[in-house]
TrEMBL record:
It catalyses: acetate + ATP + CoA = acetyl-CoA + AMP + diphosphate. The gene is acs. The modification N6-acetyllysine is found at residue 627. This is Acetyl-coenzyme A synthetase. The keyword Nucleotide-binding applies. The keyword Metal-binding applies.
Length: 662
């Protein structure tokens, strides 16, 4: 952990408070502070009783559980562990024979504006058909599938079909490189890959299948038996006879029900890779029942989703937000949702607002980085300003992925929510499975920039280095004191790393989130950002070490150090300090090498990991013991004056070199 807790200072001084809106409070699932307090109290008095009640009320079990929480192997907690169910049955079959059966499940809008709709019944049929097809190919419970698909109904079908058979999926975001796919393929030992020929984004086609072909050709993927390809564009693809199959051919002749395979509550539902402070991305493993319970409950509690709502989460299914708040939570809750293939700026920066208007979206969930870029766009192109659109259908708007600064919050509140929609600033992580700290629309007075209060049953705290609670107004480490059903179960294949990372001994058995935070005198949480070497660029998590390893794997690079710098649009920007094996480049040559390195990182990890700024030096600032002085590099990256004593540096003049942008 990089910062001492006393170093975490609040940059936010915010006094505005917005009480809940009466109309929303009146009809909310959790209505009024008293109702919230009652749930919090119920959870505190008897957590097992509380979670047991919710798991019975909100999930359909094929074998009921008798034990709620099993702490015998803590921190490897188990929930409802003698119960059995199927997650796909809890998202689809449960709606058959109810009014939800013929309700629209997904309104899918393509990049170029075509609209496709499926009802819950149709989605069920399609999932069964594909699951039957996979079954016919011999896939079964416990097999792992890598899914590398664009935003599409097919992505939902693929994920749901896997879990219907008890398979474990690992979705790789379409922006990741073949190298990243390869790492995940090998790590999970996948026998199946589901991908598409190409994807469409912002009017352009981007090939997907070649990255899969290249990943498999890298070697070590003997377990892969099939690559199933969804034909999205009809673009040219290379075909490997015997291994590659079209998704529509796999479905051919497979219509009819597919019995959902009951699995133990703790059966892994999926593995999703995310960046940590050290080493390669880690495979966060989630369990079936606890995860689904929280996914569906938070859709009902936090988003207050109702029968009549049209819900839209703009995340990609390649991230946890897309898993929990597109593929699992909303379907389990029976909500009608919009799903979007494209980007917020195509054909122009009014796309989100136009889609809210067209589909009469009432619950809208996006990321601060999108909001910030649309603020800029609206200034530059007034015709794309949200005020130009009818956004009257909106009733709740949300934000996720990074701190939302009060300015962006106020703009979102005024220009999008028209001062009548509560903003849910939801704090959570890949590891937490679902929302942890968030306002409730019918309960919580809002303060711009604060994610406010924990959900009932979630015991959040801020502690110092010894795991002791800090006073309000003092910064510290954000922890969760009690286990909760949707928590990460382990890191796939690396239980030791799981323990070390999330339950370090000094934290007294609390879950360590890796964020710094503080609480104000009302008990509201203010998140200050990561305290480890994880960067948050446009809401995407990237480890500095991951990017450094990618850079040093280039033949020209001797050494590299990566830090974050605050950025108006992307939250944080990546700055890389690079020492080459050759002499210091200058002018055009430096620019050429910088470009080559950026492209290299895009190829090694993905375009989202490209450094915004690359600085060359003959060395990096190091202590006498050879440790890179990252704090100094952060100062340099931000253009801050160096106040620290630098006399111990091997070569203080390198700071001048490193201050020069290419
Ligand atoms: C950050 C995304 C401030 C935080 C769901 C966390 C936030 C990391 C917020 C997890 C928020 C997420 N306010 N910071 N509302 N939401 N974060 O795993 O640093 O991609 O640790 O999960 O994003 O990112 P992840």
């Amino acid at each position: 952990m990089r910062m001492a807790s006393t170093d975490i200072k609040s940059v936010l001084v915010e006094n505005r408070v917005f009480p809940p809106f009466a109309d929303i409070e009146k009809n909310a699932t959790i209505s009024g502070m008293q109702a919230y307090d009652d749930l919090v109290k119920e959870a505190q008095q008897d957590p097992n009783e509380f979670w047991g009640r919710l798991a019975k009320e909100h999930l359909n079990w094929t074998t009921p559980f008798t034990q709620v929480l099993d702490e015998s192997e803590a921190p490897f907690y188990k929930w409802f562990s003698d119960g059995e169910l199927n997650v796909s049955a809890n998202c689809l079959d449960r709606h058959l024979g109810t009014p939800t059966e013929n309700k629209t499940a997904i309104i899918f809008e393509t990049d170029d504006g075509k609209v496709l709709r499926v009802t819950y019944r149709e989605l069920y049929d399609r999932v069964c058909e594909f699951a039957n097809g996979l079954k016919a190919l011999g896939y079964k419970k416990g097999d792992r599938a890598i899914i590398y698909l664009p935003m599409s109904i097919e992505a939902v079908v693929a994920m749901q079909a896997c879990v219907r058979l008890g398979m474990i999926h690992s979705v790789v975001f379409g922006g990741f490189s073949s190298k990243s796919i390869h790492e995940r393929l090998v790590d999970v030992g996948a026998s199946l890959v589901i991908t598409a020929d190409e994807q469409m984004r912002g009017g352009k086609t981007i090939a997907l299948k070649p990255a899969v072909d290249e990943a498999i050709a890298t070697g070590g993927c003997q377990a892969v038996r099939h690559v199933v390809v969804y034909r999205r564009t009809g673009g040219n693809v290379q075909w490997h006879e015997g291994r590659d199959l079209w998704m529509h051919d796999v479905c051919q002749g497979q219509a009819g029900p597919c019995e959902p395979v009951p699995v133990n509550a703790e059966h892994p539902l999926f593995i999703l890779y995310t960046s940590g402070s050290t080493g390669k991305p880690k495979g966060v493993q989630h369990a079936s029942a606890g995860y689904l319970l929280w996914a569906s409950l938070t859709v009902k509690w936090a988003f207050d989703a109702k029968e009549s709502d049209v819900y839209w989460c703009t995340a990609d299914v390649g991230w946890i937000t897309g898993h929990t708040y597109i593929v699992y939570g909303p379907l389990a809750a029976g909500v009608t949702q919009v799903m979007f293939e494209g980007v917020p700026t195509y054909p122009n920066a009014g796309r989100f607002w136009e889609m809210i208007q067209r589909h009469e979206v009432s619950i809208f969930y996006t990321a601060p980085t999108a909001i910030r870029s649309l603020i800029k766009a609206a200034e530059a192109q007034p015709e794309c300003h949200p005020r130009k659109y009818d956004l009257n259908s909106l009733r709740i708007i949300g934000s996720v992925g990074e701190p939302i600064n009060p300015e962006a919050w106020m703009w979102y509140f005024k220009e999008v929510g028209r001062e009548r929609c509560p903003i849910l600033d939801t704090w959570w992580q890949t590891e937490t499975g679902g929302h942890m700290i968030t306002p409730l629309p019918g309960v919580t007075p809002l303060k711009p920039g604060s994610c406010t209060l924990p959900l009932p049953g979630i015991e959040m705290a801020i502690v110092d280095e010894t795991g002791t609670d800090v006073k309000s107004g003092t910064g510290g480490f954000l922890v969760v004191k009690r286990p909760w059903p949707a928590m990460i179960r382990t890191i796939w294949g690396d239980p030791e790393r799981f323990k070390k990372n999330y339950f370090p001994p000094e934290m007294k058995g609390y879950y360590l989130a890796g964020d710094g935070a503080q609480r104000d005198t009302d008990g509201y949480f203010w998140i200050m950002g990561r305290v480890d070497d994880v960067l948050n660029v446009s809401g995407h998590r990237l480890g500095t070490m991951e990017i450094e390893s990618a850079l040093v794997s280039h033949s020209l690079v001797a050494e590299a150090a990566v830090v974050g710098r605050p950025d108006d649009t992307t939250g944080e920007a990546i700055v890389a300090f690079v020492v080459l094996k050759r002499s210091l480049p200058e002018g055009d040559e430096a620019a050429k090498i910088a470009k080559e390195l950026r492209d290299w990182v895009a190829k090694e990890i993905g375009p989202i990991a490209k450094p915004k700024d690359i600085r060359f030096g003959e060395n990096l600032p190091k202590t006498r013991s050879g440790k890179i002085m990252r704090r100094l590099l952060r100062n340099v990256a931000r253009g801050e004056e160096i106040t620290q004593d630098v006399s111990t540096l091997e070569n203080p003049t390198i700071l001048d070199q490193l201050s020069q942008s290419v």
